[in-house]
Amino acid sequence: LRNPRFVVLYGSQKGQAQSIAEGIAEEAQERGLVAELSCLNQNEKYNLEKEKAPVVFIVSTTGDGEPPDNALQFVKRIKQKTLSTDHYEHLCYALLALGDTNYANFCNCGKTVERRLQELGAKQFYATGYADDGVGLELVIDPWLEGLWKAIKGALSKMASDRIAPSRGDSPKETPDLSAPDVEFNLLSLNGQQSCKSGRASVDTDSKCASVASSFASATQMSISDLRPPSSAGKSPLNVPALPPPYLDVSLQDIVGQLNKESVHEVPIYRAVQLTRGDSVKTALLLELDISAHPTMAYEPGDSFDVFCPNRATEVEEMLHRLGLHDQRNHQVHISLKKDHKKKGAQVPSYMSPNISLLHLLTWCLEIRSVPKKAFLRALVEHTGDGVQRRRLQELCSKQGAADYNLYVRDPSLSALEFLTAFPSCSPPLSLLIEHLPKLQPRPYSAASSTLKHPGKLHFVFNVVDIPACNGRPAGRRGLCTGWLFDLINRGLVFPGKVERSGSLALPKIHVSLRPNCSFRPPSDSSVPFIMVGPGTGVAPFIGFLQQRQENPEAVFGETWLFFGCRHRDGDYLFREELEGFVSRGVLNHLEVCFSRDDPAQEEVGASVSRPRYVQHNLLLNSQNVAEILLRQSGHLYVCGDAKNMAKDVNNTLVAMVSTELQVDQLEAMKTLAKLREEKRYLQDIWG
After folding, report:
1. Out of 17, 83, 103, 633, which residue is the most buried by the measure of CB atoms under 10 Å away?
2. Confidence check: pLDDT of 200 > 60
């Protein structure tokens, strides 16, 4: 007899959804099932129009609620209005959506797929899971996966029963379990002061928390006693995930071939200016790139671009020493699939060319600062010699260790290198890092200029990110890309108030790639009014918007508002002279600014907002004008900046404003804003 089959389809931008889908396919084999795994863009490998078996969708969301690149065509296909309402009436499905509540349109791709499947007649055999990266994907993913197998077997059993006796009613015992209470319960139970206690844990979690805390107390000198769990925890059973099957063979060879360069543009940094004063909490820099030799890099205001940055050289050296491969740093890395591997859909990472050196791989290919996933921790167990440390790794990747994993690994964003430092008896092979660490992603930045005013040049602005010390990280560090850029330009940096000198130190070149954002742009009709909200470096794209207007004096322009905020008027008021110049020339009609730290009295709880402290306060003070533009003049609203606080606060303020102006309840106000989003009149360019 053939094993029962089901289909697993995934849409993944950075590999997380793909990894989950592959894990389902691997576990299916252990359970006596056949999982046919495909990416959603591989439509030649599956056929939903004729599929009778259960289908499991794993989909993430990217950008402003957009589908991943490899799911885009699938979403377009199922959204076709010509499809009938019974198009998928034969289909039964389950869906796991990945998203982040720090961003608008949480799990929007998953919700879009589910809505269309149901509109086209598909039936759900298992409750949808909405995993939130803002609090920890595993809080939803783990219980959802645990309940999936019972639901799949129930759906397969029902299908078999229907084929044998289609005239009989569904047997209650064969009806799939559509409930998944753990999915929502775990999501809602998390809070910022989460206790280490867990209702489902079978170990002494209070003692374990203290033990794990001590285990990360020093990342440079870790003693075995620091890692030893209490005797009660050492004897308790753990629910440890299955060992991920290894699938890569990696060898090092002496001769290194010619490196393959990515199809990106290498451009010189023409100028670097510090925008903030020396005593500011944050350091904001403006970099001007010379793109005159690259005519294909034609950008519009609102566009963004990627900066390709390397891992920090000192961290690469540490990793080489940690792997015991420092003497082979210049050897060529040869990567191939194991002949007897058991991983579904296994392939050699496409971003690694066949003739790169080990040094290049660790510098440009792998994100060695990425937070280690639980699957990686589980794989490390097999390469750890000390029994106490093995147990600790098992705890951290187990269900019982979920709170500890969040507290000591995920929340402080410990890197893979920092984590390995805490487990000195762990000696993973290079192949394990290549299998489990993600690709080093380029960092996106918004263009802060218009080519009409700065032909052949591209400006961008960023704050140098400072990451504080913590347990497991004895010293603070800078953000990977912002710290690298700061080091590159530090000697040639121009400070506020200082005259730039000709013949200053030559600045280096960096690799960039344009990523046009066709929606976050000024209205195509210049007479349409619009509102911009951009505190801090979020003002960057709006500088480009306004420069573009300034260079088109003959055009008829609609009314413009800019809401800007920072800590101190004299410390970090970015682009102050240029913004005030836009106002004096009539390019910008209204400039509303606020300074959150200038008046100490405003620090008191309950202080009046008559003198606005944050951009949302200024929006409230101008609510009638904002509502007039958005609700009656068909204007546009653009929000750029921090996703975790500012964007949420602005959105909540808009809900309140719309509710007041239209005299409707909160739900109706939210629907109004959702309609503005659908019409691309409420747009966000935000980051975590």
Report:
1. 17
2. no
Query: Could you tell me the end-to-end alpha-carbon distance of the chain, in angstroms, rounded to an integer?
Result: 51
- Would you state the pLDDT for residue 164? 63
> Given phi > 0 = left and psi -120 to 50 = alpha, else beta, which region is 641?
left
Question: In this structure, are strands 530-533 and 477-478 parallel, antiparallel, or unpaired?
Answer: unpaired
Q: CA–CA distance from 203 to each of 208, 209, 232 (Å)?
A: 8, 11, 7
Structure letter (DSSP) for residue 470? B
Q: Does 388 score more than 50 pLDDT? A: yes
DSSP states along 407-449: IIIITTT--HHHHHHT-TTB---HHHHHHHSPB-PPEEEE--S
Q: Are 64 and 99 in contact (CB under 8 A)?
A: no
Which residue type occupies 517?
Answer: N
Work out the number of other CB atoms within 10 angstroms of the CB of residue 666.
Answer: 12
Q: Where are the beta strands (DSSP E) in 309-371?
A: 332-337
- The Cα 275–Cα 307 span in angstroms is 20
Region 640-656: mean pLDDT is 91
| Region of 484 on the Ramachandran plot (φ > 0 left; ψ -120 to 50 alpha; else beta) | alpha
| 11 neighbors 70 (Cβ within 8 angstroms) | yes
Residue type, 343: K
Distance CA 133, CA 61 (A): 11
| Cα(78)–Cα(550) distance, integer angstroms | 43
Say if residues 568 and 536 touch (Cβ distance below 8 Å): no
As to burial, measured by CB atoms within 10 angstroms (0-12 exposed, 13-18 middle, 19+ buried), residue 608 is: exposed
Query: Which pLDDT does position 178 carry in this prediction?
Result: 37
Residues 97, 110 contacting (CB under 8 angstroms): yes
The whole-model pTM stands at: 0.78
Q: What is the mean pLDDT of residues 178-195?
A: 29
| β-pair partners for 207 | none
Nearest CA-CA partner of 215 in 426, 369, 375, 366: 426
Instruction: Tell me whether strands 34-39 and 5-11 are parallel, antiparallel or unpaired.
Output: parallel
Q: What is the C-alpha to C-alpha distance for residues 300 and 418, in angstroms, rounded to an integer? A: 41
Q: Using the 8-state DSSP alphabet, how is residue 550 labeled? A: H
442 contacts 309 by C-beta, under 8 angstroms: yes
Q: Is the dihedral of CA 366, 367, 368, 374 positive or negative?
A: negative
- 95: confidence class by pLDDT, cuts 50, 70, 90: very high
At which residue do the structure tokens 């940094």 appear?
269
CB 37 within 8 A of CB 45: no
Kindly report, residue by residue over 482-529, the tens digit of the pLDDT: 999 999 987 767 665 444 544 455 678 999 999 866 789 999 999 999
| Closest by Cα among 481, 445, 489, 509 to 312 | 481
Identify any residues that bridge with 267 across adjacent strands, giving them in sequence order: 510
310: left (phi over 0), alpha (psi -120 to 50) or beta: beta
Distance of CA 412 to the CA centre of its chain: 16
Nearest to 38 by CA among 27, 49, 48, 50: 48
Please report, as a single letter, which amino acid is at residue 52: K
Q: Report the alpha-carbon distance of residue 401 to residue 77 in Å, rounded.
A: 42
Residue 167 makes CB contacts below 8 A (sequence gap 6+) with none
- In tens, the pLDDT along 326-365 reads 999 999 999 999 998 888 778 888 888 877 899 999 999 9
Of 457, 616, 633, the C-alpha closest to 543 is: 457
pLDDT band at 169 (very low <50, low <70, confident <90, very high): very low
